[in-house]
Amino acid sequence: MTQTKGRKGIILAGGSGTRLYPITVSVSKQLLPVYDKPMIYYPLSVLMLAGIREIAVITTPQDRAQFERALGDGSQWGVSLTFIEQPSPDGLAQAYLLAEDFLDGAPSAMVLGDNIFFGHGLPEMLADAGKQTKGGTVFGYRVADPERYGVVAFDAEGRASQIIEKPEVPPSNYAVTGLYFLDAEAPARARKVTPSPRGELEITTLLESYLNDGLLNVQRMGRGYAWLDTGTHGSLLDAGNFVRTLEQRQGMQTGSPDEIAFGQKWITREELEARSKMFGKNDYGTYLAGLLK
Known about the structure:
Blueprint: E1 8-12, E2 33-34, E3 37-38, H1 41-49, E4 54-59, H2 64-71, E5 80-85, H3 94-98, H4 100-103, E6 108-112, E7 115-119, H5 122-131, E8 136-142, E9 150-154, E10 160-165, E11 174-182, H6 186-191, H7 203-212, E12 216-221, E13 225-229, H8 233-250, H9 257-263, H10 269-278, H11 283-291
Parallel strand pairs: 1-4, 1-6, 4-5, 8-12
Antiparallel strand pairs: 2-3, 6-11, 7-13, 8-11, 9-10
């Protein structure tokens, strides 16, 4: 797949992870393991599957050094990583203000650092979203507990009519996932977002500005997709078990930037071989070596 022209990526990996205390007292939530890889590998792999090679990682000042150590500059995967500090977590829409200089007028795809996506048609779905030059695309996923999320209301024709943050009476079972394809206007629109009662720049308010202008496409993810967030102890364990089951049953990796980079021809056989030797004492290294055969 070719790179989405001009579109840049953002991974929002800030916050203090208080819901996961005490395991996140000393380490960023997005660096915790999800089975055999750091959590951030999974959202990174989503952006790479979308053909995006310029990516900003937004994290806290105290966690920045850990992320730089875990990810480097991205050259081992044929991508370019930029690290941006978020002094305080003031809402998801704040990411577009922090990344405005990095985006430099480019459209973006932002993914939350604790979200995991899986599905056979995922690359094609991402490619379709990336082709949109005006407005934005978000993804609705059916959940059993929509009151925990931003929820999409649909009109009689099945078109998205409203997005409501954590509604007491959800208008549907479709939650907005943590993956947002927005045009170059996102930072300017984010500047107009006023803080919510909890003092945050809500992503739902930003998305509603697109929706009210008829510029937001809500793509429903069907039964064949999995969307997991890993914000609680139970969901973190569930995500690890999900990945482990997939990999053991299929003998294929999930969320591997190394495999994606090699498949996209962003790295050479020699570079992948070096990575496989780096992980030579475990199954991940064995898997990467197997890709060369």
